[in-house]
Each structure stands twice: as structure tokens, then as C-alpha cells.
Design brief:
Chains A, B: GO terms for molecular function: hydrolase activity, acting on carbon-nitrogen (but not peptide) bonds. Chains A, B: Keywords: Hydrolase, Signal. Chains A, B: This is Amidohydrolase. 2 copies of one chain form a homodimer. Chain A is built from 19 helices and 24 strands. The first copy, chain A, is 30% helix and 22% strand. Chain A is an alpha/beta fold. In chain A, helix 7 packs across helix 8, helix 13 packs across helix 16 and helix 16 packs antiparallel against helix 17. The longest helix of chain A is centred in the middle third of the chain and has 17 residues. In chain A, helix 8 links the parallel strand 15 and strand 16. The first copy, chain A, folds into 2 domains: 88 residues, Diaminopimelate Epimerase, Chain A, domain 1; 327 residues, Alpha-Beta Barrel (TIM Barrel), CATH 3.20.20. Chains A and B meet through helix 1, helix 7, helix 8, helix 9 and strand 24 of A and helix 1, helix 7, helix 8, helix 9 and strand 24 of B.
């Protein structure tokens, strides 16, 4: 393969080349009077009292209690005794999905039709630039309505622009008259197979469209414009920084997403670090070209590789299992592609040094991916950092295979606490032995990269840290933790959300640890997470977030 | 419309903000002992003897004979008395087309089948990474063959990979057996309408496919890979720099082209400045998002706007004329879209501040675009710099309309010298009054941005300068110049390839003039173009090309 490295021989002589060397400015900052915690070079937790930051935003020195403070720094920032930890890394989320979700009207907390109408009217007034009012979360049962709401009830609050609201379960949509008019839906419209148009006694659509009938209106909702995308990115970034996430792996980047990331970088407003995994090999080639992109914008953005899917999810019984679902004995789920197709896509990416991040939830899917990696690893040598995304249900017999090629298990601790009852329904106890098996995977030599899968779950990493070390949900259930032998230590949980997340994204040495030479990405928080219980850790408030030696979020501002 | 400008309030205090200010390095360069020519701030040609360049590649001072040389510069470059002119700007070309064309096998100079076979074998040996051997320019008549060549004659020199060669006129293609096999073309293939498969007496395809039959093989030629695109960009850049082109308007940038430009910028090997015009509004939105991109990579790349087409070309009688073609009395050519469609696309772009560059060759097309601009100019106020690309045949009655909104005529002087006999066949003398009417357009208050339309013509700007001031071709014909009243002055020609090209691309103040504060883009050449005849100017050799204060091309290296 041709790697293009145009020669620099066109620079005449050493003297001209010297012109391109920039002279460093000698402005540095000391952040002192802090109670710092980090995972040191040896993987052990260490405490420190000050950070000395160079003018390029990198750490010059991590100072401990006994170290002498530098005398001649240009700036000094008083930490006022607050707690400091490394910026946290989310190794699996969907940046634009998080942003778009947050920009959408959420009706899930409304308890009456009138309350929902008021929320819709307020949202429309606050978002005058929106061409459509889009929302979700309504539930007429919760409202005590005993019937579906109507288009007329929406028209009463928003009549001048289309409104389209998805029911809480995603199985119905509610349109106003303007939306139905734009979609060309009237009395003559026919319900499609697997869907139903709710009608009044005269046969006119009332405004609610069930299941496949939703597409009749949904298909008219315009695609987001570039400015909508930029707004969603900005929103997602602000949410993540407010939770203390300073770097994230974006799983399934489209070319449109990537262009938005680049606009943020070009425009100087990209404050979070994004490790990008393209949505399939076509997007990968279009975004990355002949290989992964370089690190851009002072290590704020890189296309690392590609996200592929081998199966679906456990909840919808789309996860591919070796044996049938306990609660659906004729069904084993199914692979989304054949083994040959998977291997072809993996080869296509690996040939050009793209990193592979493969979604596998069921034990059959994990087995197949492990097998495929084992077959390809001989051909595609070197530091590949093969990733399995989710790795939720692994046949205990397959756990050892994670060690063979240093395969990274990219897992989301909160999925365990959210899904445990559903998992117990889907799987018998023998298979639950390999469910969310964090400690077993670590023990087998795998590396855990923790994340949230936001917006599927909240991106709050303190909830993730608490779940990782306790196997207990926000409600304190189950007491003592679910299959608590798979919990990880406090240090392992922190590494999963910091240094090991950086390693999983080829960012080790750049960020993820508070050590000299790495970017100064850190958080001021309101408690000592080494001394707090998991339940207390879950309550942690982020006071301020710094990325590259700059404060990019502060609570209450 | 929302313009996203994320607030910077997250930076705490003035002290932290001060950290982002970089301290300038004090390394500068004096290029002296030169005979310099430039178009000064007042549009007049000026001479100078030295350039003082700052460490960021911008001009600190243009020194004249009487000026005192600075004493304390860090570096000094001896120009050895050579001539220096500003870097030249090509306002209309196709960067990737130029690069791909140059990477393709050219058989147009071969005078026998044997010579062609040798060239094909050599090219295949020199380009082992090519999956297909692609070429053009063969002519069996010139070879004295009196028959089409055969697949077997190609197999004899390249049998292991597919070969596909276009005839000189583009009306036939010649394949080897491997190419036919990959395309699935055999005895059973049928000639499509408007095409013919040449067959032997047994009915087997012999390897030549005429007109529409070419698609049978052409459709199997693989799309270029990203590394192919990067190679083409590198090739185009080297060609342009060797001709003294330091900046170019790319007319019809695709997202794939743009990604290649960005890889060059990110990788530090983008040496030419590219002003990009997207290939249609979809590419425009994908590349630019909510508006033109910022200037990137120290003013090396910007998406300015969009290229649209209103008609075709004069040669193929696709240009849209007010009256029928003189040599085809039933034909006026035709518009490629309706006036309403054109205005919709123009509005779509202008709404988001994208610049419009509209291809119009025939007098009816120019009239329509002038009318559309006049209608839209009230709505889309401000500094729009509407561009008409080619503006070849303008009704003399319409020439004055170019002045009304400061419309830029983006014209290619060499098209005039190449096309004059064809134009005389297509048009009667009355209409030739408005053909390639450079001086009339200037006189009407339009600004001329000159270019080459490479790879349609050679990108050599000295051929363009010579044609612009003489209306005479490389062969010296016609003596005294064709409709020479439309020739422009030496100063106007130089401005069309420098400062006015920069203005047409919103780059004025950045490059295009050798004045303090602009990038130091300049050429060392082998003659004084102020004292040379047009025929002599055409022979100018570029000795070295500097962009941003760095030598990026030197002859003979």
C-alpha cells in the first residue's frame, strides 16, 4: 500500500527549515492548594497537592506534599483545598445522539394532558428557530386520559408549525394538523401493514399513529441542518463536561458528524476530546481516507477506526445467543451478518490500520468475534487494540480468549444495574455466570474500558464508577450487589474511566493520567472518592472541568 | 438562522485567557539581490529589489532600490539578481482532474502500435500499485494500422491486470482480456443503443468498444481509493507549483476531494492555496455546513462557495445561445436547468453566505445568469462577489450588466486562442463581438479573474498571460491577434492572474499582492516580463516557487 509522505526536500537548506521551529513562550500556571487523586504510572492510586501546567496546557509536574513549590510561575490558581481527580473518559457513547436528545422536548415527567400542553407551548416559544417541534415521552395512561390525545389538542397550543411527539415506548406518534398536512396524511391515507392510523367516527385521522403508521409522518420530518448539528454537538459537549467527561469515544460517526466535529475544531470551540469510530467502512474510508486521521487540534479529535455490529440487544432479544432465550425457547437471536461478511469488513479496516470496535452482546456473538480476531491477528500484526463493544454475555468458556490478543472489553457498568432483572428473565443462572463479568475479564488479562452508551443511559460517570465497584443500582438494590464477585476495585474502576479508556483509544501518553507530559485534563469535585462509599460517589458533584490546562466548565456559571 | 458562537465565558479570569496568547518568535528572512515586479496598491506595476519576510511567512517590507536594507535579519537569501514576480493565481481549474490526468498513461504521442505497446508495458512496470492500467490518446489512423487494435495485442504486454485505454477522441475504448473478463463481457454481450462492440468473425469481442458500448467496460473500472486521490492531489500540486501557480480556485469540489485537501493540510504537505467551490449545493452543505469554511492552514484552504452549471460548451454545441448556431441552424443549445431551478439553487447558497460561481458560456446563458443575479442582489446584500465562469459569449447588449453588481468574469485566455476557429464556425461576426470580450468587460466595470480550466487546457499561466495581452496562439496565429481590440494591457493581464484572482476568491489582503502583511508567495523566473514580448513571455521558465515564505518548488531538483 502506498503511504503518501511528500518529500520535504523542497525546503532549501537548513537555514530555511529552522524558520518553521516555533519559539516556546514561557508562561506557566501553578494550580495549588488541592487534594489530588490520580492513578500513577504503576496503576496505584496516588495523592498530590499541586499541578504545574506548561503554557501549552500540558502537565509540567505533579507535586506531592513534600515537594517544593516552583517559585517563578507566571500564574497561580488557588484550588482552595478542593478535591481534584483526572478528567474522566467515556469509552462508548454517541455524541450527536446525546446532543440531539437533549435538544428535544421531553414529556416523560408530565402527569396530565394540560401539563404536557403547557410544556409543548413553552418549548415552542423557547425554540423559535425550530422548523418542527419534536419530542418524546408522552403517556396517556399516566395522564389518566383513557384515550389517545388528538391533533386538535396540539393545534390549541402550536398551530403554526408542525409538531411530532413520540410516545414513551416509541410505539406511537402524535402529530398536530400542520404535521399531518405537510406529511400529506388525510382521510384517504391507508394504515400500513403492522401499523394503525387512529381515526374518528368520520374516518379522519385524529393525530395518533401506531407502530408502522408512524412512518407516514416521521418521513416528513426534515433532516437536521448543519447548524442543528453544531448546536447538538455544543449541547452534548456541555453536558459531558458538566459530568466531568473530558474525553469520549464516539461510536458510529457519520461524515456529517465528523464535519461538525471539524467545524468545532476549526472554530476553536471543541473543548472535549473525541476518539471517533466511523459508522461502517464506507464512512471510515470517507472520513479517514487511507488510514486513521492524525490527532487534530492538540489531541482533541482523531478517527481511530470503525464501529461494526454483529448482533442486537438483549432487551429486544436481538442479541445472538448460543442457546435459546430462557423466556423465548424458540429464539436464539441472530447475527446481523455472516462470519465471512464480518471477517471481510474487519480485513478491509485492519488492512489500512483502522482500529476495530465490534458490537457483540450475546455469547454467540462474542464467541464469533473472538474467533474472527484470533484468525485475523496473525495477518494484521502489531498494536491493534481490538475492541469488543458491550461484551455483555460471554460464555465463561470464552473469557480466557480475551487475553490472547490483548482484546479490550468496552463495557458500560450502568447497563448491568439497569438490565439485571431483564437479564435474569432472558438467561438461566449458568449463563449469568458470564454476564457483565468485569472482574473475570480483568482476571483473564483483558483491559476494561468503561463508558455509558449515552444517550441510552445517562453519561454520568460517577454512576458508572459506583456501579462498577458495587454492582448496586441508584436505588441501593440489590442489597450487597448483584453477583458482586464481578465488581471491580476502586482503583480498577477509576482506571476503566481514565487510563485504560485512553489506552483503548490509542490516547495513552496524551491524556488519561495526571503525569508530566500529558494534557492537564482534570476535575474539581466535592468529595474524596477514595474515602466515599459507592452510594456517596454516585452523588459526586463536578465543580469545574479543565481540559488542556483551561477551565471549560464551572458549576453554577 | 442560528450562527453558533459558543461563549468563551468558561475561561476563568483574564489571567487564564492570557495563557492562550502566543509569544512571537523573532526570526525573519531577507531575500535580496532580486529584480522584483509587482502590482502595487494602486494597480500600477512597481519594481523592487528585496523582500523582508517575517517568521510567519508574511511580508514585513517590500524594499525598493533606494530603501535601506534592514541590518539585523536572522537569515539572508541571495536572489543572485534573478527576476521575481508575485505567485500566480489560477481562478478556474480542476485540481483533482489535473492530478488524475497526469497520473494516467498518455498515448497521444505514439506513432505506431509497437511504440504504444512499449509505452504501455513501461507504464505498467513503473506503476505496480495500480489495480487497473488506465490511459488515453491512442489513434489507429496515426499508427497507419487501418484497423482497430485488439485485446490480444494488449495481452501481449499486460496480461495479469486489466487495461482500459480511451481513444484520442473519447469515442472508443480498448480493453485487454483481463478487463473484459472483469467486466463480464463475452460473446453473449449485446451492443447497447448508440454503441458498438467490435467483434471477430466468430462473434467474439476483439477488445474495442465504440461510443455507448464503452460503458460495458468503463463501469468496472474501480473508483479511486483515498490513497489514489492523495497521490493525484500531490501530483497536481507539484505541476501547479512548477508552473508558478501558488493559489487556485478548484471548480467543483466533491466531499472526497475536500477530504484529500484536508489530509494534505493536516499532514503538513498542502503547499498550494486552494479556494474551493463545491460541486453543487449538496456537496456545499456537506463540506461547509452552515456557511463557508474558515480559512484553514494559514490561508491554504477555504470553501468559498458553490459551482453551478447553466449550460454546456461551445464545441459540443451545448452552450445556450439566443439565436441558433451558425453551423447548426435548428439548434440553440439548451439550459441545463430552468430559470426557477437556477434561482432556487442560488438562493439556497446565498442565504448561507456561500459565494456563487456559475458556469455560463452561451449568450443566452450569460443573459439569464445576469438577470438572476440582478433579481437576487437586493435580497442577498453585502459583499457577494457573484462570479460567472467562462462568460465566453456575451451579447454585447448585456456587457454593461456586469458592472451593476460588481460581477466577476472568471475567464480563461487560452480558451480564446484554442477555440477561435471553432467559434468562427459556430457564430456569425455580430455575435463574435461579444466573444472572449475581456477588454469590453473590463471597460464595463467588471473584474477579470483569469485561469486555465486545467486539465482542459495546460495550467501554464505564462501562456495565459501571453494570450491575454496578444490574442495570439502559441503558433503566432493569427498575426496581430484575433479581434485584438479585446486584448488587455500587461498590467491588467498580471492583475487578472494575481490581485484580481485573489479578490474573486475573497483572498484579498491575504495573498495576491507583494505588499506588507500578505503571505510571501512569489516566483523566481528567467526573464523580465515587463520588457518581454508576449511570445517571449510564453517561454518563461519558473526557476523557483515560494509559498508563505518557503521554497516549495525549484527547477531541476
Amino acid at each position: 500500500m502506498i503511504r503518501l509522505t511528500p518529500s520535504r526536500k523542497t525546503i532549501t537548506g537548513l537555514a530555511m527549515a529552522a524558520l518553521t521551529v516555533s519559539v516556546p513562550a514561557h508562561a506557566d500556571t501553578l494550580v495549588d492548594n488541592i487534594q489530588g487523586i490520580t492513578v500513577g504510572e504503576d496503576g496505584k492510586v496516588e495523592r498530590f497537592t499541586a499541578l504545574w501546567i506548561d503554557d501549552d496546557g500540558r502537565i509540567k509536574q505533579v507535586l506531592k506534599r513534600q515537594d517544593e513549590l516552583p517559585r517563578d510561575t507566571d500564574f497561580r490558581f488557588d484550588g482552595k483545598g478542593r478535591y481534584v481527580i483526572p478528567g474522566l473518559i467515556d469509552s462508548h457513547l454517541h455524541v450527536m445522539g446525546l446532543g440531539f436528545g437533549a435538544l428535544t422536548l421531553d414529556l416523560s415527567e408530565t402527569s396530565s394532558l394540560q401539563e404536557a400542553q403547557a410544556a409543548i407551548a413553552q418549548y415552542a416559544a423557547e425554540n423559535p428557530a425550530n422548523r418542527w417541534i419534536i419530542g418524546r415521552g408522552w403517556n396517556q395512561e399516566k395522564w389518566g386520559l383513557n384515550r389517545f390525545p388528538t391533533a386538535a389538542e396540539l393545534d390549541a397550543v402550536v398551530g403554526d408549525k408542525p409538531v411530532w411527539l413520540e410516545r414513551v415506548d416509541g410505539h406511537a406518534g402524535w402529530a398536530n394538523s400542520k404535521a399531518m398536512q405537510l406529511a400529506g396524511v388525510d382521510k384517504t391515507a391507508k394504515s400500513p401493514a403492522g401499523g394503525k392510523i387512529i381515526r374518528d367516527s368520520a374516518g379522519n385521522p385524529t393525530g395518533v399513529f401506531v407502530d408502522n403508521a408512524s412512518a407516514l409522518v416521521q418521513s416528513s420530518v426534515p433532516k437536521p441542518r448543519p447548524e442543528d448539528r453544531d448546536l447538538a454537538l455544543s449541547k452534548a459537549q456541555n453536558i459531558l463536561l458538566s459530568f466531568g467527561i473530558t474525553a469520549a469515544a464516539d461510536m458510529g460517526t457519520s461524515i456529517e458528524d465528523w464535519q461538525s466535529f471539524r467545524r468545532a475544531g476549526d472554530g476553536g470551540w471543541l473543548n472535549i476530546r473525541i476518539m471517533s469510530y466511523a459508522a461502517g467502512t464506507e464512512a471510515m474510508e470517507l472520513i479517514g481516507g487511507p488510514g486513521p486521521s492524525p490527532w487534530l487540534y492538540q489531541d482533541k479529535l482523531r478517527l481511530n477506526g470503525v464501529k461494526l455490529y454483529l448482533d442486537g440487544a438483549l432487551g429486544s432479544r436481538g442479541a445472538w445467543l448460543k442457546q435459546p432465550y430462557q423466556d423465548d425457547p424458540a429464539n436464539t437471536g441472530l447475527p446481523l451478518q455472516t462470519g465471512a461478511q464480518l471477517r471481510n469488513l474487519m480485513s478491509r479496516a485492519a488492512l489500512d490500520e483502522f482500529q476495530l470496535a465490534i458490537h457483540a452482546i450475546g455469547d454467540a456473538a462474542n464467541s464469533e468475534v473472538l474467533q474472527a480476531i484470533d484468525e485475523l491477528a496473525d495477518t494484521y500484526e502489531g498494536d491493534r487494540r481490538w475492541r469488543i463493544e458491550h461484551a455483555q454475555i460471554v460464555d465463561p468458556a470464552d473469557i480466557a480468549a480475551f487475553s490472547k490478543h490483548g482484546i479490550i472489553a468496552s463495557m458500560q457498568p450502568v447497563h448491568q444495574t439497569s438490565d439485571r432483572e431483564m437479564a435474569e428473565a432472558r438467561l438461566d443462572p449458568a449463563r449469568l455466570e458470564g454476564a457483565y463479568a468485569w472482574r473475570s475479564l480483568l482476571g483473564a488479562g483483558s483491559r476494561l474500558a468503561f463508558g455509558s452508551d449515552a444517550p441510552v443511559e445517562s453519561p454520568d460517570p460517577f454512576a458508572g464508577l459506583a456501579a462498577a465497584m458495587s454492582r448496586t443500582g441508584a436505588d441501593g438494590q440489590p442489597f450487597g450487589g448483584w453477583r458482586v464477585k464481578e465488581a471491580v476495585s476502586r482503583e480498577q474502576a477509576l482506571a476503566g474511566f481514565t487510563s485504560d479508556g485512553a489506552f483503548a483509544g490509542f490516547a495513552d501518553g496524551r491524556f488519561g493520567k495526571l503525569v508530566a507530559g500529558q494534557h492537564a485534563d482534570f476535575l474539581f469535585i466535592d468529595r474524596d472518592i477514595l474515602l466515599s462509599s459507592p452510594a456517596d460517589i454516585r452523588q459526586t458533584k463536578v465543580l469545574a472541568t479543565w481540559v488542556g490546562g483551561r477551565e471549560v466548565f464551572a458549576a453554577g456559571q
